[in-house]
Design the sequence.
């Protein structure tokens, strides 16, 4: 497979992988490549799409050594015409590269939340719904971006072929259970007013619907993204 047929996925930490997106890509026989940012980034070249996953770090933190290189890489991918799908931190980085801003959220979101759309778009129907949130920073959308959802914060925006979502469509029940076994994440959830046990019950009850919603979102984004020549 050529790079132009391949979806490149950037991961920043072991517990924030591609989740159900990996299964969706495999089921459709779409070639994809996972890169751990800590191991270094590939040479810039056009891809079918670039997916940037979540991270515990903040886009604006000058103490994080790998952020400048990743920011430059995303900027190079935009210049090469690669569509970018940013998830949580990935959406924040995409907004930053496109001229938006990222700052500390007044009201961090942890757990399941209802996302409402604020603008009519081809993506409206697949954005609105119940999604998993886990972020302490928020986005001021870049110029010329269409903000699809901005309830408590910007939850989704599009800019040309690029999509940023503040929520986590890729997360699975197994990933959430692993997060709730982590003391740091349990503490963060409680600081945001949630309880681990209640979150796990809600996850079990809504896991199938969340996976179906994620698949519809991927269908919409990747349906607009074709390898060169198709």
Sequence:
């Amino acid at each position: 497979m050529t790079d132009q047929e391949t979806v490149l996925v950037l991961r920043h930490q072991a517990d924030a992988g591609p989740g159900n997106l990996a299964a969706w890509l495999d089921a459709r026989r779409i070639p994809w490549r996972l890169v751990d940012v800590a191991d270094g980034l590939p040479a810039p070249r056009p891809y079918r799409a670039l997916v940037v996953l979540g991270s515990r770090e903040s886009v604006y933190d000058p103490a994080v050594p790998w952020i400048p290189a990743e920011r430059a890489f995303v900027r190079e991918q935009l210049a090469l015409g690669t569509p970018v799908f940013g998830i949580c931190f990935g959406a924040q980085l995409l907004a930053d590269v496109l001229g938006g801003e990222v700052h500390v959220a007044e009201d961090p979101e942890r757990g399941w939340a209802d996302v409402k759309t604020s603008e009519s778009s081809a993506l409206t129907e697949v954005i609105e719904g119940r999604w998993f949130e886990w972020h302490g920073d928020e986005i001021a959308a870049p110029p010329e971006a269409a903000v699809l959802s901005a309830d408590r914060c910007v939850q989704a925006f599009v800019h040309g072929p690029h999509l940023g979502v503040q929520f986590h469509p890729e997360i699975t029940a197994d990933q959430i259970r692993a997060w709730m076994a982590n003391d740091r994440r349990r503490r963060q959830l409680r600081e945001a007013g949630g309880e681990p046990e209640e979150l796990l019950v809600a996850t079990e009850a809504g896991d199938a619907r969340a996976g179906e919603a994620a698949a519809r979102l991927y269908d919409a984004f990747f349906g607009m993204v074709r390898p060169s020549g198709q």
Observations:
- Helices lie at 20-27, 67-80, 89-97, 124-127, 173-179, 183-191, 196-223.
